[in-house]
Amino acid sequence: MVVYSPGRANLIGEHTDYNDGYVLPFAIKRYVKIEIQPSNVFKVYSEQAKRGIQFNKLEKTNSWADYVIGMVVKLMERGYEVRPFDMRIDSELPMGAGLSSSAALEVGAGYAIARMMGYDIPRVELAEIAHACEVEFVGVRCGIMDQYTVALAREGHAMFLDTLTKEYKYVPLRLDGVKIFLIDSGVKHELGNSEYNKRRYECERALILMNKKSFREVSLEDVEKIDDDVLKRRARHVVTENERVLKTLSALETDNFQLVGKLLYESHYSLRDNFEVSCSEVDFIISYLETQPSVYGARIVGAGFGGSVIVLAESEFPEVFGHLKEKYWQRFGIELKMMEVYPSEGVFAHE
Question: Sign of torsion, CA 234 17 303 316?
Fold first, then answer.
């Protein structure tokens, strides 16, 4: 059996999912491919790493295999029996590009194991198990957006997700004459993971200072009363980003891509200035795109400190990208990569 588990792009709503906020992601037609068959011992092989791991003990290895081992652990904790398997993993998702390759692997591995064992696990439960794997086993305190998107996405749609109530609805992406591109900056600064957890801690500290239990209770007036400048800016990003998601949702209903693009740029400025998760390479890309009439908007996606930029543009954008690629090489000596992305369905299998 072969399972295809999609990557995730987030149109808008960054660093809000672990703050009880709103997000507007969609799955993309780029996949982690997982082949699985029963075995007498647990074996996992990665085409990207060109190496395999065989394990009997369900312990951390501090490697990519933890996303699979962690899913076995969390499935068992939920009462699902998991017998040994031979799993081969191949991926067309670039690691560290902010496209949620880890969630794709978690959800895909869980889905493959469930199918092999004959379980029909509800997709919401599968997403919850994958989230527990990432937070409790791997040790990254992420929100639920990535796992929900990979498990539940619908082709041709974005997913408006309220991470407080976990309610979601599908939003048609009628991209007539408009296209979505992802530019891989080719950089992933090492401080990313530690700074991600630090941002989460800073948001928690800001809530304590405002005497609030959730950012959904917070207004901009509350934010401006915070004395600590850093914590004030972190909180300001969360509150204003939630507003931008709701405005984007309304703009998509009327296909107002000019407004969507404006909101994407505003999101990037806030991620750069208030949340401080951008970097010089990504800011260079955004600055260039702002000068191009065929580009509606763009922003950094994912945890930050490198990774990818999402671009909403007209169909002639590849020509613009060609000029940007040349300037970027001259400035940083890094070759930019670009892909056009199409909204995909969630994880699925081919028998």
Answer: negative
The pTM of this model reads 0.92
CA 52 to CA 2: how far, in whole Å?
Answer: 18
Residue 162, classified by CB atoms within 10 Å of its CB into exposed (0-12), middle (13-18) or buried (19+), is middle
Query: Going by C-beta distance under 8 Å and a sequence separation of 6 or more, which residues neighbour residue 345?
Result: 6, 27, 153, 154, 155
Q: How many CA atoms lie within 13 A of 191 on its CB side?
A: 8
Q: Is 342 helix (H, G, I), strand (E, B) or coil?
A: coil
Is residue 184 flagged as an active site residue?
no
Q: Are 56 and 104 contained in the same domain?
A: yes
* Domain co-membership, 48 together with 158: yes
Q: What is the 3-state secondary structure (H, E, C) of 304-315?
A: CCEEEEEEEEEC
Convert the pLDDT of each residue in 116-133 to its tens digit: 999 999 999 999 999 999
Residue 206 and residue 327 in one domain: yes
pLDDT, one tens digit per residue, over 208-223 is: 999 999 999 999 999 9
Which residues are paired to 36 by β-bridges? Answer: 87
pLDDT at 293: 96
Distance, CA of 149 to CA of 151 (rounded, Å) = 5
Query: Are residues 16 and 125 located together in one domain of the fold?
Result: yes
Given the residues 20, 146, 184, 222, the one annotated as active site: 146
Q: Which helix (H) or strand (E) holds 250?
A: helix 229-253
Please indicate, yes or no, whether residues 75 and 94 belong to a single structural domain of this protein.
yes
Do strands 343-344 and 22-38 pair parallel, antiparallel, or not at all (unpaired)?
A: antiparallel
CATH number for the domain harbouring residue 133: 3.30.230.10
Same domain, 250 and 147: no
Residues 201 and 97 in one domain: no
pLDDT at 30 over 90: yes
Q: Say yes or no: 134 and 9 in one domain.
A: yes
CA distances from 276 to 187, 188, 249 (A): 16, 15, 25
Dihedral sign, Cα of residue 163, residue 166, residue 169, residue 174: positive
* Apex 148 CA angle, 80 and 102, nearest 5: 80
Residues across the chain: 351
* pLDDT bucket at 48, cuts 50 / 70 / 90: confident
For residues 72 and 42, is the Cβ–Cβ distance under 8 A? yes
